[in-house]
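Before the break, one more example. Copy the sequence into your notebook; we will annotate it together after we see the structure.
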Amino acid sequence: MVQYEVTFVVDPVLSGDEMKSTAQVYVDMLKNEGANIVHVDEMGLRQLAYPIRKKLSGVYYCIEFQMENGVFIDKFELALRRDERIMRFLTVRLDKFGVQFNQDKRDGKIGIAKKKREEEAAAKAAAAAEK
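Here is what the structure looks like once it is written out:
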């Protein structure tokens, strides 16, 4: 199976429920086509690098999924283009290094989770040294 990742930016003017339902629509669309959803990540509200539709921020979502072939990707991207709630999107086919990187990030070996673990370990060591 080939692994893909689609990242899209949802209009921040929508309510929280509308944003989540927008992401769920695309997750359901992928499931209906036989895709295996690996991970759905709501990255939250972030500032955009440049204004899009006179907006300076957007809510980012990332869906990682597996499919046998990429035939459905064209239909999926067409649906994203037609949806007015979606400001931008990017679909990427992941190679083995991208798949491993995403897995390591989810496991906390890379990024913010790793820093938090290191800080907690340092705090525990400092507390143990004081006793």
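The mean pLDDT is 90. The first helix runs from residue 16 to 32. Try to locate both features in your own notes.
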